[in-house]
Design goal:
Layout (H helix, E strand, L loop, with lengths): L6 E6 L11 E7 L4 H8 L3 H9 L15 E4 L10 H11 L10 E3 L15 H6 L7 H4 L11 E3 L2 E6 L2 E6 L26 H13 L4
Parallel strand pairs: 2-3, 3-4
Antiparallel strand pairs: 1-2, 5-6, 6-7
Length: 212
Amino acid sequence: MRHLIIAMLVLQSSVCASQSGSGTFRLWVTSDAHVAYDLDKNGRLSIADAIEQSEGKYEKSGYPAFDWDVMLHLGDIFGQYPDDPEGQLIVSQFNAGKSHSREQIYNIMGNHDASGVSQPENWVYRKWIDPMGNNEKYSGVDSNKRPYPVSGTYERYSFEVGNILFLMLSDRNDFDYAHGGRDTSILGYPAGKVTLETYLWWEEKVRNNQDK
């Protein structure tokens, strides 16, 4: 249950507006849920357990609740080699919350989230995780319900919370080598690459938002 609690940040600013309008914004930063792997090896619902803990389900067991406005999940939500069944499992776990919506969770891709050889570009991630809400039928993400609207594409997007600008850059580790740089001699599917278009987008955002 504690697997996903990587960092909780409480940000305060005279122009940073939370959903409650209190000026306090609670950000939950997490990654590497590896949902199918965690369920298979540890019998744990890594996303659902963590969300339910945050809402107080396990307080009697010694796991404290905590409040949050937004969760950032920063990649490797899939176990490895994403597929439809794991996508469905992830969506069901995202919906475990009673007082938090799916739209309060913002995602990027990690190296384990890439689709396989000669498959359409990151189709599983785009179908089931779907940060832009383009596939609501599968992902359940309604972009109109985002507490902070997103702008961009599935692999690079931004959103603003008061004077804070979030730039969400995904790892393009997908086959066939164009961006991911995978090699059969290297184990672990090395991560950390972005496209030139993503880099130029990031550079423009930084240059044009010096007040954030």
